[in-house]
């Protein structure tokens, strides 16, 4: 038996046989086929509904849980429904508590939206809270969700349009989070929508080029997770600052190198950037510096010397970060070549940071060799400049 078909029949029979559950004061506005429609709202028993695992607001959390369990979750199974409920309740606990208090005090004022077979499109978190309240209090008031039911003829493309239009709206809702937003956009493409259609569905929130850029950022995140044996662990990038690292990598490094330098340079920089991001010791502003480094022969050579893309040892990554920062200094120095006094002052400050009393420094042959080279270059520069003066 197809449980979804069976559930749709039960839901249809419930609405047909319970006209008293119509909520006449509420209508659910929905854009279907480019036309605004106002669907009737009913009080629907929670037992006739299931959580929508397509819901973009918790895609990363869902994928993480399924990865941990090593299986897909089925919202029609009670055990899995409980897991989905907990995921929804644990998202931003403070906001969840505020919404719970609002539902207790005022009841459900805004109607949800469900598919013809009872999958909740817009009100998953509200249903999770109502289910929790109903279980804890036994109060029948919390056993229903006020929702409108979509027509049966809604296809995958139209359903994405409706979901995205509602879930990206600026209302009293849980924010997507940067990764979930990217996943939702990609889901739109997979549903068969063009970028133009996605942009239009979201009221122009993203231009075509912005959509292309966001999807490329997600591709970089996918590649990074795979390179660190964390495939599908999008939950690690729910913070805006972490996603901003990949925004900078794509928008300020990879794309400019691809368009203005070469495909080779763009390909070469990605594994380097991944190891730098993995170190958790670089900022998104520093990541942007990779473009200049890759275009400077000496700076690039300094950074990539000894680089091993598949070596994730902390000592190797730490060395890469040090070389990266040195390469930044080299590029910055070239950009400031018309300011020799500032360059000398910076060099003095950097040299001053070395502790001459540290015994380890005295045994460091590479350090001694570098100091000899520095001494030679400073001596030569001094002779040239003073001789010119005379």
Kindly describe this structure.
It is a single chain. This protein is an alpha+beta fold and 390 residues long. Among the domains are: 3-176, no CATH class; 358-390. It is built from 18 helices and five strands. The protein has a five-stranded mixed beta sheet, sandwiched between helices. A hairpin with a 5-residue loop joins β3 and β4. α7 (178-190) crosses α9 and α9 crosses α10. It starts with a helix and ends with a helix. Residues 170-174 have low confidence and may be disordered.
Produce the secondary structure layout:
Blueprint: H1 3-17, E1 22-32, E2 35-45, H2 59-69, H3 78-90, H4 93-106, E3 112-114, E4 120-122, H5 124-137, E5 144-149, H6 156-167, H7 178-190, H8 195-201, H9 208-227, H10 240-260, H11 263-279, H12 284-287, H13 290-294, H14 297-304, H15 314-335, H16 340-352, H17 359-362, H18 365-389
Parallel strand pairs: 3-5
Antiparallel strand pairs: 1-2, 2-5, 3-4
Helix pairs in contact: 3-5, 4-5, 7-9, 9-10, 10-11, 11-15, 14-15
Low-confidence stretches: 170-174
Cα distance, first to last residue? 99 Å
Q: Order of strands across the widest beta sheet?
A: 1-2-5-3-4
Could you give a short account of the major beta sheet?
Answer: 5 strands, mixed
Q: What pattern of helices and strands is seen along the backbone?
A: HEEHHHEEHEHHHHHHHHHHHHH
Mean pLDDT across every amino acid position: 86
Count of DSSP H/I helices: 18
- Tell me what portion of residues adopts beta-strand conformation: 5-15%
What share of the residues lie within helices? Answer: 55-70%
> Structural class of the helix and strand makeup?
alpha+beta
Question: Number of DSSP strands?
Answer: 5
What is the approximate shape?
elongated
Tell me the Rg in angstroms.
Answer: 29 Å
């Amino acid at each position: 038996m197809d449980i979804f078909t069976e559930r749709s029949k039960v839901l249809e029979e419930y609405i047909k046989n319970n006209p008293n559950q119509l909520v006449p004061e509420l209508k659910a506005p929905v854009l279907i086929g480019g036309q605004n429609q106002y669907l009737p709202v009913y009080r629907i028993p929670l037992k006739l509904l299931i959580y929508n695992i397509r819901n973009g607001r918790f895609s990363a959390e869902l994928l993480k849980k399924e990865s941990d369990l090593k299986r897909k979750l089925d919202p029609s199974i009670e055990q899995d429904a409980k897991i989905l409920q907990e995921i929804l309740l644990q998202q931003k606990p403070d906001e969840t508590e505020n919404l719970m208090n609002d539902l207790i005090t005022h009841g459900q004022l805004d109607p949800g939206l469900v598919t013809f077979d009872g999958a909740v499109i817009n009100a998953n978190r509200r249903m999770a809270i109502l289910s929790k309240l109903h279980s804890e209090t036994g109060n029948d008031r919390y056993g229903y969700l006020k929702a409108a039911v979509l027509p049966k003829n809604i296809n995958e493309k139209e359903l994405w349009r409706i979901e995205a239009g509602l879930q990206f709206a600026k209302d009293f809702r849980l924010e997507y989070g940067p990764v979930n937003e990217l996943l939702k956009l990609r889901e739109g493409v997979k549903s068969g929508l063009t970028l133009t259609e996605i942009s239009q569905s979201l009221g122009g929130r993203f231009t075509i080029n912005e959509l292309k850029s966001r999807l490329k950022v997600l591709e970089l995140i996918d590649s990074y997770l795979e390179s660190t044996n964390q495939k599908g662990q999008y939950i690690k990038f729910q913070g805006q600052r972490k996603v901003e690292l990949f925004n900078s990598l794509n928008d300020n490094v990879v794309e400019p190198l691809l368009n203005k330098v070469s495909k080779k340079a763009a390909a070469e920089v990605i594994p380097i950037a991944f190891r730098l991001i993995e170190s958790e010791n670089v900022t998104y502003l520093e990541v942007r510096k990779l473009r200049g480094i890759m275009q400077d022969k000496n700076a690039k050579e300094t950074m990539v010397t000894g680089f091993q893309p598949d070596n994730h040892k902390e000592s190797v990554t730490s060395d890469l970060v040090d070389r990266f920062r040195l390469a930044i200094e080299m590029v910055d120095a070239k950009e400031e070549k018309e300011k020799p006094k500032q360059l000398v002052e910076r060099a003095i400050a950097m040299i001053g940071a070395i502790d001459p009393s540290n015994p380890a420094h005295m045994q460091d042959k590479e350090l001694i060799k570098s100091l000899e080279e520095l001494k030679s270059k400073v001596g030569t520069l001094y002779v040239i400049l003073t001789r010119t003066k005379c």
